[in-house]
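Researcher: I'd like a structural prediction for the single chain below. Treat it as a standalone chain; there are no partners to consider.
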Amino acid sequence: MGLDEIVADGTAWADGALVLMAFLDDEIYFNVTGASDLPPAELARAAYAGKVAIQTAKLPAGVMPVLHTSRRDARLKAPYAGLPLREALIMVLRMSGTDGILLQSSGSSWTIVLRDGIAALDLAPRHLPPAHA
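Model: Treating it as a single chain, here is the predicted structure.
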């Protein structure tokens, strides 16, 4: 089951943010505003660096950047960007004024993960140790 299906299913969230650990290398997508002059290849880096705005939702739990779990989501409008989930979560933690993330499935389902849950995840990249000769 992929992240899109997990969000759509909704029952796998008993473990909260921990369910995201299996999907840290999966690509997620987000709408970008105020970046019409940037080439598509540079949008993700500009968003990661905090140089452009991304779509947010205001919910009772706070302000959440909207991260789409599927590139085929009709709500994604140009310009949009994609990043591995790991990098997107780090990006959100660096953003001021956000309280977590809203993960939107390609259907009508969505879920939120609060900032504390994201901060508790081990977001360090997984690399194999160098081979010793």
